[in-house]
Amino acid sequence: MSETQFDMPDPELGQATIVFDDPDGDVESIEVDNEHIVYFQDHWQVKTGEDEEGNDVVRRIPRGKVHYVERSVEEFQDRIDALVDKAKNRLNFDIG
Description:
Shape: elongated
Radius of gyration: 17 Å
Helix content: 10-25%
Order of helices and strands: EEEEEEH
Distance between the termini: 22 Å
Largest sheet: 3 strands, antiparallel
Number of strands: 6
Structural class: alpha+beta
Strand order of the largest sheet: 2-1-6
């Protein structure tokens, strides 16, 4: 196996549910694939669909408006382990 190839689990990483206050103060819930939600710059960013031209539509939800984010991540640790191994191989880094 070359340094750029490694065994990666299936990219399906489960579902995520985000529960937050909408602009009217009501509680809203959105369920998406884990790959469509990310926390960045004090906001949760959630892909909510696509526009007519095929561009992603992303809703930015401020951290303070979010009650919780729940994720099913049965393969997440395997993916992290594979990414760590790939990084160690690229950097020629050995632990222990």
